[in-house]
Input
Amino acid sequence: MTIEAPETKIVETSRVACDGGEGALGHPRVWLQIPEDQGWVECPYCDCKYVLKGHEAAA
Output
């Protein structure tokens, strides 16, 4: 059995909201802050990775 890789989204702001994106099948909305030195953050619910534009190589 293979596991799908989590989704990666390139964003332009360091503060993002994630709700799983599947309506009622998603998860509670959480606000995530991307650390400037790291350039990315992962959602603790769905493991979606948010990468700050310009930091794609770091992720």
Summary: The mean pLDDT is 89.
